[in-house]
Design a protein that fits this description.
Number of helices: 0
CATH topology: SH3 type barrels
Strand order of the largest sheet: 6-5-4-1-7
Shape: globular
Helix content: under 10%
Order of helices and strands: EEEEEEE
Structural class: mainly beta
Length: 68
């Protein structure tokens, strides 16, 4: 399974990525800011990855990520 970021770069477990857009978290007042750097873990779905930030753990869509 190949997981790609918004630019088409391949992503692997433990890669660092940045957010390319401000993301509002559903059911919360938390906003993940554009340019935030996070480490990712791959999931079973090639369109989603797990990440941990200082604001909590989230599942993000790869279309909003750019590999560093």
């Amino acid at each position: 399974m190949e997981v790609k970021d918004s630019n088409g770069n391949l992503l692997n477990d433990g890669d660092s990525v940045t957010l390319i857009k401000d993301l509002k978290v559903k059911g919360s007042s938390v906003v993940l800011k554009r340019g935030s750097k996070v480490r990712i873990r791959l999931t079973d779905d090639p369109a989603e990855v797990d990440c941990k930030t200082d604001k909590g753990a989230f599942v993000l869509k790869t279309e909003f990520l750019k590999k560093v």
